[in-house]
Specification:
This protein is mainly α. It is 73% helix and 0% strand. It has one domain: Ferritin, CATH 1.20.1260.
Length: 152
């Protein structure tokens, strides 16, 4: 495979990760009872929708075709598609811990992509920008986890 095809393949893997995240955050927001956490989860879902749009655009710029991922229908626990991300609904601590695990894995995927692959400057800029936003979300998540622990 050539360099552009490799990059498109890698971007499609990030696209899938963000599709899963968007669905997971949206579904968790629908099920959680705390308004502040609900709003935060919806903002993460919106952020991932924006990530998806940017990744799709970059794939097209590179001459590739963005993959389309099917909606997963069923229980809320299927939202992230990964068993380690099961939500105990309306349990703030479990929800935050699931978000933390997911965000750490997502960040690692971004870091792996940027560290192990040579990509076009526009792709690198896109990935680094999204990676920085994920780091900010992780920082916010850590604050929320600390606040949640103190409110018990």
């Amino acid at each position: 495979m050539d360099k552009k095809k490799d990059t498109v393949s890698l971007l499609n893997s990030l696209l899938k990760k963000n599709c899963d995240a968007k669905r997971g955050y949206h579904k968790a927001a629908e099920e959680i009872d705390q308004p502040a956490l609900k709003g935060w989860l919806m903002s993460l879902a919106e952020q991932r929708e924006n990530f998806k749009k940017s990744i799709r655009e970059e794939i097209r710029i590179l001459g590739g075709e963005p993959l389309v991922f099917q909606q997963v229908k069923g229980k809320v626990q299927q939202a992230f598609i990964k068993p380690e991300l099961l939500y105990l609904l309306n349990n703030v601590e479990s929800t935050l811990e699931s978000c933390l695990r997911y965000e750490l894995k997502t960040l690692a995927k971004y870091e792996n992509l940027i560290n192990k692959n040579t990509v076009a400057p526009s792709t690198q800029h896109l990935i680094i920008g999204q990676q920085e936003n994920i780091k900010l979300a992780l920082s916010d998540l850590e604050v929320r986890m600390t606040e949640s622990a103190y409110s018990l």
